[in-house]
Amino acid sequence: MNIKEKVGNVTNNLHHEIDDIKPTKRKWHLFLKLIPLLIFIAILKVLSHTYGFEVLSLNALLTSLIAATTFLIGFLITGVISDYKEAEKIPGELASSLAVLYDEAYIISKNKKSKISKEFIDFHSQFVNSLMDWFYKKEKTRNIMDKLNNMNDYFAKLENLTQATFIARMKNEQNNIRKLIIRIHSIRETSFVQSAYAIVESLAFFLVVALLLLKLEPFYEALFFSLVVSFLVTYMIALIKDLDNPFEYSEYGEVRSEVSLKPLHDLRNRLSKN
Predict the structure, then answer these.
(1) Nearest residue to 117 via CA among 167, 64, 158
(2) Strand pairing partners for 128?
């Protein structure tokens, strides 16, 4: 077994181990993130009860505030979930187009034994690596688009070696890749309506303050319901913000709510073996 195969095996094993760890981290990362905030709210509630700052009584206005916050949270999550569901499909479509480019070049290389087809295969592997770096913001979008456009030089040289339909298919996949890269760039650089975030965050703040000032007996019930409502509201806001950018890998990688890049990892492993 040569060094290249050993590296490929180690990489595959590492990805399998990471895949086993990801579900747990994806499931609980927001809960763990909010624990310090919940502890802080609990301390404030105890202090408010101890020093007599509980001056509000349970009434219809408080329930209306909860209902308004819930409605706005539902509005926000409906907006971001559509982009997230679309984003889930993009890595698979991107990997499919890249695989077609490789397959076409591989066929030409097998049939014609040409130097230019082998050079394109090497260029294609480097492009996939650069694309993965781009997801982690180690490459600029401008550079990725320039590298994608450089494929045209190889297509021009390959025209004399194969049928026009092969080149047309490769150009079509190149165009699909370009569209997907632009779409990913738009999703991760454009946030949902900022004014909507502002109003729901303001309502959440006033709701938590109202719960801290709410007088409800016995005290342990007031503490319990204050923490539950605060947790639900803050968790949903954090979840919406997390889903708003499903391609944010630069800080935490692929262990949170980001879209899985497994199709691209599988493609890169396949290319490393050839």
Answers:
(1) 158
(2) none
Give the HSE-up count for residue 65: Cα atoms under 13 Å, Cβ half-sphere: 19
Rounded Cα gap, residues 207 and 226, in angstroms: 10
Question: Which residue in the block uniquely carries the two structure tokens 């919406």?
Answer: 240
- Tens-digit pLDDT profile for residues 67-88: 888 888 888 888 888 888 888 9
Say if residues 99 and 114 touch (Cβ distance below 8 Å). no
Task: Compute the distance between CA of residue 31 and CA of residue 231 in angstroms, rounded to an integer.
Answer: 9
Point out which residues pair with 56 in neighbouring strands. 214
CA angle 265, 23, 260 (to 5 degrees): 30
Per the rule left: phi > 0, alpha: psi between -120 and 50, beta: everything else, 213 is alpha
For residue 108, give the nearest of 91, 124, 129 by alpha carbon.
Answer: 124
For residues 242 and 236, give the distance between their C-alpha atoms in angstroms, rounded to a whole number.
10
Q: Residue ranges per domain, the chain?
A: 3-272
Rounded to two decimals, the pTM is 0.77
